[in-house]
Fold these 2 entries.
Entry 1:
Amino acid sequence: MARTVDQARHEARRLVIVDAALTVFAARGYDGATTAAICRQARIGSGTLFHYFPTKLAILLGILEYGTREVRESAAAYEGREDPVGVLLEIVGRSADEAADPRVPGFVRAAAGVMHLPEVAAALEADADAQRARLRPWVERGQELGEVRTDLTDARIVSWLMLLTDGFLERVAAEPGFTAAGERDLLVATAREFLHPGGRPARRGGRVSR
Amino acid sequence: MARTVDQARHEARRLVIVDAALTVFAARGYDGATTAAICRQARIGSGTLFHYFPTKLAILLGILEYGTREVRESAAAYEGREDPVGVLLEIVGRSADEAADPRVPGFVRAAAGVMHLPEVAAALEADADAQRARLRPWVERGQELGEVRTDLTDARIVSWLMLLTDGFLERVAAEPGFTAAGERDLLVATAREFLHPGGRPARRGGRVSR
Amino acid sequence: MARTVDQARHEARRLVIVDAALTVFAARGYDGATTAAICRQARIGSGTLFHYFPTKLAILLGILEYGTREVRESAAAYEGREDPVGVLLEIVGRSADEAADPRVPGFVRAAAGVMHLPEVAAALEADADAQRARLRPWVERGQELGEVRTDLTDARIVSWLMLLTDGFLERVAAEPGFTAAGERDLLVATAREFLHPGGRPARRGGRVSR
Amino acid sequence: MARTVDQARHEARRLVIVDAALTVFAARGYDGATTAAICRQARIGSGTLFHYFPTKLAILLGILEYGTREVRESAAAYEGREDPVGVLLEIVGRSADEAADPRVPGFVRAAAGVMHLPEVAAALEADADAQRARLRPWVERGQELGEVRTDLTDARIVSWLMLLTDGFLERVAAEPGFTAAGERDLLVATAREFLHPGGRPARRGGRVSR
DNA sequence: AATGAATGAGAGTTCATTCAT
DNA sequence: CATGAATGAACTCTCATTCAT
């Protein structure tokens, strides 16, 4: 029991650090974020930081892992669904919702800025894999049902859906007037159009649920 | 006259440094790129580097300025054209072509990674402004001619065209199987579809000229 | 009574730590030995370590004190002997035997490496004093009996006996082929020769008892 | 020419650092010697220190290398000599002279204190090899001429000569009353006796030249 | 104009030590 | 009594930048 409590406590503290680091990385970039600033943000001493993460890089990787895990876990929520296009658009919409947290685009840029580090490249690759694994089955199923275009391979369609969400994130970060909430519906509509060009518009009045 | 020659010589050497720095920034990110590495790549001494650029940051800004200037100058090439959609798709296609230089996506990430520096943010903003200025007149003209959708404001359409090219660049950088050359046509087609949903396909057999 | 038991228990645990620390200091030097490594070796928590010793330095001093105490106590074992040279050679031989424990030369070096700390200098001085006090009476007695050379003062002879044992320890530590067991007899013989140059060899067949 | 001058300048500066580091290592031990203290002693900035030596450890190794080189070079000075025992005693005497520099024993201890580092162990081994190589030919030659005992192998005699000089150094470091100058002659005499027990005393009035 | 030796501010990280449990 | 999470002082080392040549 104590072991369990300790582990939970440990995990909770790790999360505090991860959250603080996410904030600081997003605001200053990877190299601009000093470990001292992360400690200040997390309200801990520098020794404590290195008690939980062996290096500064490990913190970044830890954040990425949390994200990847979330992608994997969220994939389970769609099991049993029968509307592949609906699922795909929900996933796309959800990524738009995540972009609304102003720290997300900043952090994504910070991570991309140190992608030349092999560990970061591997972690981003793993994240992309998780995203592909979440999308691909539904693209395939949609193609089988005739609801998704078949002039492109499923893998390519997946890549293009990710292109849309990546570009969306980038625009949100770069353009003050381009807000996640304001452009969300157009993202979903564009994705729908991409998945099934010229297809009938979705259920009228429909707003893709979040 | 001598002044002119000197100036040309000066400019030429600056370009050598800019090119070397572009390579090193792309490969290692902004902070990962040491001035020593840039000097090595440019085959100059460190003293010389700081003779041409006052700080390391100034080199990055210099690269961005060259890019922005290119955007501005390329805009002039379209003057007098009568096919707004064609122009827009050419611009989009050209940005895909640029993504084929493997240094481009790497450099874009490096720059984005230090976007928290106000000077960089300003330079990227200026670049984005130049891109918007290049696109916007043709979107307006297209809307006037009924060749571009009018359910979205011209500014918003411009943003979404940039979203597509940004996302394209990002995918090229992230996914080894996603090549600029292989996906170029689909990018142009997707842009066309976005500009005029359900519109007749362009002149058949047409490949958007580079 | 309980007090006594507690004290014995306390002393026993101290010894466990001292032994563990001896091992770690010998293997990694004073600074190279982290308190964490000592705790691991002693199978205790860091809190416990500092419950028995106030500082890391105190552990080193504790080890040295144990050694010094041993020197003092061993001195008593020779009381009543009538063969001063025999006693001296036994002491020298015994120091060679101690060098056979591979941790001893390593620890001696570790301690010498931090001799610049006044506390360590004092402790080593105290140890040297104990060694001198153990040797000197027998040198004097030997000189009185005509069994030890008198062209050197007793103090100087003592120093040179220590020079031999120190050098022996150092060689054992430095030269893999120079083993304590293999060179022991030559050490004793050299010491005998030094004590009484040209003197008749000791009792024939004699091997200095340990 | 410039190259030669630069190289000479570089070497001279390296020597300044080596000398300063020797002083500081001797006074505070390896770990106790901060790079800041070495810089202060050498009157240079920290950047300069690391311009000449990549790491603190490299400085220590550099000092050891200088010592080893000196041993090798000094060996050449004895070529052509016909009195092996005289040569050996000169070498032994010279090591006693070196011990008169108060920094030498301190530095030797500092180095021994971090012998657990493989690089240091290797450098000390190389130094010992150089010393053995300097001594051994003369021991062999002495044995051939009947001037050195033959009951021990040449290698063993070499080890014991080194034992004497090591022990001498250690005593000088540990005992204030034991000075290099005061004990030098006894060291040489003891070495002579060891090389040829019971041998005739050397040429009368002879003092081993320095 | 071109150089690179010299600089020092500032970074990440280690580890002896404390103290609440 | 025993523990180990938390601490922060202090360390080594990097690197953009300067300036005498």
Entry 2:
Amino acid sequence: MVSKVNEYENGLHHFENACRQNGLSITPQRIAIFKELASSSEHPSAAVIFRKIREYYDNISLDTVNRTLLTFHEIGLAKVVESSGDPKRFDPNLALHHHFRCVKCGKIVDFENAAYDALEIPRAIQKKFVIREKRVHLEGFCDTCRSPDG
Amino acid sequence: MVSKVNEYENGLHHFENACRQNGLSITPQRIAIFKELASSSEHPSAAVIFRKIREYYDNISLDTVNRTLLTFHEIGLAKVVESSGDPKRFDPNLALHHHFRCVKCGKIVDFENAAYDALEIPRAIQKKFVIREKRVHLEGFCDTCRSPDG
DNA sequence: AATTATATTGGACTAAATCCTATGTGTCAA
DNA sequence: TTGACACATAGGATTTAGTCCAATATAATT
Ligand SMILES: [Mn+2]
Ligand SMILES: [Mn+2]
Ligand SMILES: [Zn+2]
Ligand SMILES: [Zn+2]
């Protein structure tokens, strides 16, 4: 078992390498944003990350958070998750996995499934398009939203 | 083979029945929006539909188009397609099918695939959530965006 | 044709995201 | 270690998407 500390350090090293390889300087803002995203499992929006960082970093700007999250996406440090309009949601989990999204509260939940992972891209699609992501997307009501009201 | 006219009439009947069953009156605006959506295969946003209808219907409001598309979704006449932030995209195709989305130009393309259709919802997910939609989501670069620039 | 509940309009408002430019700071080479 | 510079950020302005609201219009029913 890998210790938490090592996981954490590995994450930071990955981040620093990715920045260096892409000619991006390593700023306190980028570090804070990376840490916040990496330690999150709720597929946060830029605004959510912004508010969390603001708790201890009193003048980081929302623009920087937005710009940086998009940069992370470009250099492969983060993914942008499928939503339905509404704010963009970011994902630090780069491994192949799948999503359930609650149409009521917007919660996005990861899950793993070997059969889903094994799906092949249809020939006709492969010929025509360059595929970068393949995910199964489930939608419905989560455990919290399913019962009382709606 | 069903004639175009019949398909069209069936669509309109379906629309009218859905409205009646839900206590919604059949207004010229709703008819125009339904026709425009039903005859589209590009998964249009509200703004796109609004602009098309404006070409011949000179004072329909954007608010009505937005509100109506959401209503259509509620009463099962349309689906809201998975995107990545950015404007909501609507889908008149109620049949089980799957999507490719170009990350550059935003184009969303339908495709059918029996293996994808046959995917089962994992036990653990079924127990916890109420599933309403199941789709495979592919992402990448479309035929137009793949080549020259990047 | 009159009634009434529902729907639409258009402008105001809110929220998300991007743009702009003056200021600040990581990085690298001396 | 310092200095120079290219790159990055802050914060305010702007753009864009979506919603709200109150006055007006109209579909459905009688
Ligand atoms: Mn995820
Ligand atoms: Mn579709
Ligand atoms: Zn929920
Ligand atoms: Zn494209």
